[in-house]
């Protein structure tokens, strides 16, 4: 199955570079590019991509605003943020808005391919320590009261959420808990529903912001 992609960046060399790299993979197809968030909305409406690589800082309409609008639409694509700085508050805002993860623009080709496939498969790109460090740092600086919904989680669901926040995949969680992967998927679905969040990335942000998970920084 081919994953359809749109690349959004205000720098032509970055757009062209990512598009050329992605086009080398048989299972990935770039169906559009855009130079700002406003253009991205139009391109995505016309092409219906599975994953959007979205720059954070752009003229006309920035990446965070564009991400919010994209994810408010019916059957939205997954969004993978592109940034130059790993501890970028704007990226944190994008994650809280529902983006599935982020990549630094100097990412290697293999890391780019892996990230797109992970996000397309419905996983949040939270395994890299730098992503968890970003969430943890800004959750520490801007703490929120614990979500009342956390009290609705069963002990096993709470454990699954902690493992999600540690960056484990469904398969890794299944191995850790000695249960089947389908069982883990069921637990994750229940966690998302009870927390009233869109996806795994937002569930992990909630875990950090509420203090359920304390990040190890540095």
TrEMBL record:
KW DNA-binding (keyword) present: yes
One GO MF annotation is: DNA binding
InterPro entries attached to this UniProt entry? CheY-like_superfamily, NreC/VraR/RcsB-like_REC, Sig_transdc_resp-reg_C-effctor, Sig_transdc_resp-reg_receiver, Tscrpt_reg_LuxR_C, WalR-like
Q: Which residues form the HTH luxR-type domain?
A: 146-211
Report the residue ranges that make up the Response regulatory domain in this protein: 4-120
- Where, per the database record, does this protein carry 4-aspartylphosphate? 55
Any one GO biological process: regulation of DNA-templated transcription
UniProt keyword list: DNA-binding, Phosphoprotein, Transcription, Transcription regulation
Q: What is this protein called?
A: DNA-binding response regulator
């Amino acid at each position: 199955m081919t994953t359809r992609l749109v690349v959004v960046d205000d720098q032509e060399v970055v757009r062209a570079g990512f598009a050329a790299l992605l086009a080398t993979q048989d299972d990935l197809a770039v169906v559009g590019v855009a130079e700002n968030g406003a253009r991205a909305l139009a391109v995505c409406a016309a092409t219906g991509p599975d994953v959007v690589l979205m720059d954070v800082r752009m003229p006309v309409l920035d990446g965070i605003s564009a991400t919010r609008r994209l994810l408010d639409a019916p059957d939205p694509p997954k969004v993978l943020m592109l940034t130059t700085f790993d501890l970028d508050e704007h990226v944190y805002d994008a994650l809280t808005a529902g983006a599935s993860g982020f990549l630094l623009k100097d990412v290697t080709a293999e890391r780019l391919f892996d990230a797109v496939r992970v996000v397309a498969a419905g996983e949040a790109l939270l395994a890299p320590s730098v992503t968890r460090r970003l969430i943890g740092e800004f959750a520490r600086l801007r703490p929120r009261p614990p979500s009342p919904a956390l009290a609705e989680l069963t002990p096993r669901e709470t454990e699954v959420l902690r493992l999600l926040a540690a960056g484990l995949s469904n398969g890794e969680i299944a191995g850790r808990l000695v249960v089947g992967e389908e069982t883990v998927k069921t637990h994750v679905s229940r966690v998302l529903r009870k927390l009233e969040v869109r996806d795994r990335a937002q569930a992990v942000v909630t875990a950090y912001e509420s203090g359920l998970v304390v990040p190890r920084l540095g």
